[in-house]
Design a protein that fits this description.
Elements (H helix, E strand, L loop, with lengths): L5 H26 L3 H9 L6 H10 L2 H22 L14 H6 L7 H10 L1 H5 L5
The structure holds zinc ion.
Amino acid sequence: MNSLNQQQATQLINELSNRERVLREEIRREMNLQDDYVQLASEAPDPGDLSFANLSIDLGNAAVTRDIHELRAIELARKKMNSGTYGTCISCGYDIPFERLQAIPTAERCAPCQQNFERTHHQDGMRGASI
Ligand SMILES: [Zn+2]
């Protein structure tokens, strides 16, 4: 676990919850969807799996697709909090600074690793969005 104190952890958990509420509301409003459907979209087991890719295409709405991606990132952050791996950079294994987590509670990498990742894996981030 990242060396966050209890107060910092609570703050980030609240931040994630607030953001999730906003996103779900946004998706529902834009798509006029049932909450069940939004739930389903955000809980598909693998971000790269076929059903989610199809869903992205079906929606055909870039804003909603982005919202769903973020919703899933929030879900992942929660799982990491539960498993004690939250706040640790998945690339270098060092703690992600609290200031960065405050700005981006769903961050999986420290800033230098994220920049490096985006430079070398840019194509991956676009997968499913452009088809
Ligand atoms: Zn790193």
